[in-house]
Amino acid sequence: MPKTKLLNIRIDPDLKKKAKKLAQEDGRSLSNWVTKLIAKQVEKAEKEQDS
Questions:
Q1: What is the DSSP code (8-state) at residue 29?
Q2: DSSP code, position 6
Q3: Which DSSP state fits 2?
Q4: Confidence grade of residue 37 (pLDDT, cut at 50, 70, 90)
Q5: Burial level of 30, CB count in 10 A (0-12/13-18/19+)?
Q6: In Å, how far are 3, 23, 24, 32, 39 from 20, measured between CA atoms?
Q7: Of 39, 8, 34, 11, nearest to 22 (Cα)?
């Protein structure tokens, strides 16, 4: 069983280009960069729920 799951999304081509550039500047793949952003938002939401 894979450790990760595939998530297919549709994204505006210009937004993808900009996100890919930011990911590269952060030394990450676009997939890893997006995963990091989602994880941060989930953690933030969970902290707000606990308050």
A1: -
A2: -
A3: -
A4: very high
A5: middle
A6: 24, 5, 6, 10, 18
A7: 34
